[in-house]
Amino acid sequence: MTNKKETLLFALKKSLPVLFGYLFLGSAFGIMLYDAGYNFIWAIFISLTVYAGSGQFLLVDLLRQGAGLPTVAMMTLFINSRHMFYGLSYVDKFKQGKWRYPFMIFSLTDETYSVNTSITTVPDNVNEAHARFLIGVFDHIYWILGSVVGSLAGQIIPIDFTGIDFSMTALFVVIFIDLVRDKNGRGKLVGFIGILCAVLCLIIFKADNFLLPTLILTVAVLSAAKPYFGKEVI
Question: Is the pLDDT score of 153 beyond 70?
């Protein structure tokens, strides 16, 4: 039997690594947005409705250039097209969320996807579908909070955030290590497949163009191997 409190605590614990990354990176976005002439109200509104990570940083540059809506839409689509491949591997799990399903799709960022992937086993007293929904809620709140903090800090404190974007790289490394430490051994194999696909695509497509092919290849390989891995990983 599932327990609401245990489900909430499970989701909160799993989302905590994202909190620290989003506070820093969200703050960087808030500072950039303020520097472009938009206050914290805009930071809240954009983070609440757009919530696209790297797409939001691009949006700041496009706003500065006075780009039109079609340009903004196309650039955002190209930058965040990888999310479509994230969603393909979680259609079945997210559908279990029922009315939560649309928000779970909307909130599936890189980091939320990584956290979901790291969940290979769920305690019996935890509602898995609701926990995955709550992880998306918590991560979204963290990003909005970081954006507001950055915007407000940009008004009163001169801060140099050079290199802050590395915090998200560090976050992915931590989540990846958690995945490969999976006791049943499948996490290690999934991690190895991901690395192999990334290296192969890096060699073929070079550093500027390898991300999307890597995602396509990784999803294809893991989908083909789904009978072996089972639904817990794929």
Answer: yes
Please give the Cα distance from 180 to 73 (Å, whole number). Answer: 36
Is the pLDDT at 53 greater than 80, yes or no? no
How many other CB atoms sit within 10 Å of the CB of residue 205? 14
Question: What is the C-alpha to C-alpha distance for residues 189 and 229, in angstroms, rounded to an integer?
Answer: 9
Q: What per-residue confidence (pLDDT) applies to 137?
A: 93
- Residue with the larger pLDDT of the pair 48 and 61: 48
Angle 40-49/4-35 helices, nearest 10 degrees? Answer: 130
Q: How far is CA 213 from the centre of its chain?
A: 18
Tokens 């499970």 belong to which residue?
10
Helix (H, G, I), strand (E, B) or coil at 210: coil
- Going from the C-alpha of 113 to that of each of 44, 203, 216, 234, the distances in angstroms are 22, 25, 15, 12
The per-residue pLDDT for range 173-225, each reduced to its tens digit, is 776 777 677 655 667 777 788 889 989 999 998 887 787 788 788 878 877 87
The first and second tokens of residue 213, run together, are 């092919």
Q: How many CB atoms lie within 10 A of CB 65?
A: 9
**Structure confidence at residue 24 (pLDDT):** 84
Residue pair 120/232 in contact (Cβ under 8 Å)? The answer is yes
CA dist., res. 92 & res. 128, Å (int): 12
- Strands (DSSP E) contained in 14-170 are none
